[in-house]
Structures are given as structure tokens and as C-alpha cells.
């Protein structure tokens, strides 16, 4: 009678779980470039700056962005960049340029840029909820004692 040896998978990878304690960060968007700021924030939200990074785990960071109405873009993008939305009805496409959206809803500009840099799945939606954006320098998260980040 033959004995079957158990096959053991020696190629298993065990990842260290990320701690549950939240870290709050504060970023001032005044006079910052939109793309540079949002790519750094997207990397922080995904946790790519920590040693134990894994693409399927959500990081334990909450990010607060203040002064979103003072964000800058380079070149002629303030007149040429358009944002589209659709009501779902026939002929319901609305387009708006950067300057008009900046005066109307300045938070949506940064939200749109960062959401495009996050994963397009459940994890990306979960990470996006960890982002808080405010158009001026007042925010209701002072009790969390956020650490100020200087992103260039």
C-alpha cells in the first residue's frame, strides 16, 4: 500500500496586520499644485510609505486637507480643464471648467483628483472615506490632534 505524503505549501506569505490605532494628518493646500499634492496624499492613504505595505490592506491614516479653495494648477488648466457630470437623463451632461468649480465647490476638485488615484474597488471606496477636505482653515477634528504634514 502506498503512503501519500501531505503536500505542504512552503510558499505562504504571512503579512503583519496594520495597527488599529488611527493616525490623523493635517495638510494645508494653500498655494500647492493640484497633481503633486493629490499624488502624495493618495500614496499616504494607501499606506505606501510604511514598511508593512500590502495592496489589499487599508492603512490606518485619516487625512484632513484645509484651504482647498486656494489650490493651484499650472499652465492654462484653470481655463481649459473641464469637469463633467451627468444627471442620467437624455441630454443631461453638464461641463464646468476649473475656475467655475473652484468658486462653486472647491472641495470637489481635490476629491476628484485623489479619487482617480485610488484603487477602483471596495478598498478604494473605503480609503476615500478616510479623507476629509475643507475649503477654509477651520476643521472640526482638533480633538484628534492631527500631525501637520508639509507636502511641497
Automatic annotation (TrEMBL):
GO terms for biological process: negative regulation of translation; translation. Pfam families: Ribosomal_L13. It comes from Laurencia snackeyi. InterPro entries: Ribosomal_uL13, Ribosomal_uL13_bac-type, Ribosomal_uL13_CS, Ribosomal_uL13_sf. This is Ribosomal protein L13. One of its GO terms (molecular function) is structural constituent of ribosome. Gene3D superfamilies: Ribosomal protein L13. NCBIfam families: rplM_bact. The keyword Cell membrane does not apply. Keywords: Plastid, Ribonucleoprotein, Ribosomal protein. Belongs to the universal ribosomal protein uL13 family. One of its GO terms (cellular component) is cytosolic large ribosomal subunit.
Amino acid at each position: 500500500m502506498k503512503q501519500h505524503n501531505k503536500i505542504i505549501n512552503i510558499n505562504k506569505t504571512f503579512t503583519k496586520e496594520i495597527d488599529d490605532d488611527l493616525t490623523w494628518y493635517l495638510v494645508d493646500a494653500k498655494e500647492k499644485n493640484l497633481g503633486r499634492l493629490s499624488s502624495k496624499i493618495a500614496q499616504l492613504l494607501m499606506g505606501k510609505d510604511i514598511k508593512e505595505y500590502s495592496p489589499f490592506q487599508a492603512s490606518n491614516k485619516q487625512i484632513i486637507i484645509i484651504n482647498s479653495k486656494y489650490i493651484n494648477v499650472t499652465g492654462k488648466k484653470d481655463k481649459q480643464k473641464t469637469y463633467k457630470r451627468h444627471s442620467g437623463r437624455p441630454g443631461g451632461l453638464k461641463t464646468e471648467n476649473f475656475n467655475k468649480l473652484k468658486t462653486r465647490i472647491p472641495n470637489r476638485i481635490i476629491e476628484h483628483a485623489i479619487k482617480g488615484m485610488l484603487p477602483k474597488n471596495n478598498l478604494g471606496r473605503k480609503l476615500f472615506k478616510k479623507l476629509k477636505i475643507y475649503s477654509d482653515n477651520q476643521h472640526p477634528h482638533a480633538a484628534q490632534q492631527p500631525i501637520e504634514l508639509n507636502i511641497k
